[in-house]
Design brief:
Length: about 140
């Protein structure tokens, strides 16, 4: 990300925190710093989880398994409210993603505005992640 783009994004994110989360300017600035520090501390490879609804495993596109993932398997499985897709069966997809596959801006934006979701957003609908498990729950 270019420096100028990064500055624009930080300004945008701060304005979102002030407008939608009732942060003061100073608190919003601090929150953005903390989010960036959290992102910078992520390992180069990270294990992520996704709940998918489908009628059958074959209905799930494993080439592009999706953009939105959680970092906590137990929490995600315990709360199916973050499931995506359409179908009668619930599946858990476990993947390993490289840090370079994470959409930094979308991840920071979602974590700022929806902190309870603890979401990581991947680029290109997750194309190129290493699938380590795909099971029906």
């Amino acid at each position: 990300m270019l420096l100028n783009e990064s500055k624009k994004f930080k300004k945008f994110l701060r304005s979102q925190l002030v407008t939608y989360m009732d942060y003061s300017e100073d608190d919003a600035k601090q929150e953005v710093k903390e989010l960036e520090s959290w992102f910078d501390s992520l390992p180069e490879e990270i294990k992520l989880y996704r709940i998918v609804l489908a009628d059958d495993k074959k209905d799930v596109d494993l080439e592009k398994p999706g953009s939105h993932y959680g970092t906590n398997r137990k929490e995600l499985v315990g709360s199916h409210q973050f499931a995506t897709g359409v179908g009668d069966k619930t599946f858990l997809l476990s993947v390993i993603a490289n840090k370079s596959q994470i959409d930094k801006e979308e991840t920071l934006h979602n974590r700022a505005l929806y902190p309870h979701e603890n979401e990581i957003t991947l680029k290109n609908k997750g194309k190129g992640v290493k699938i380590i498990n795909f099971q029906e729950l």
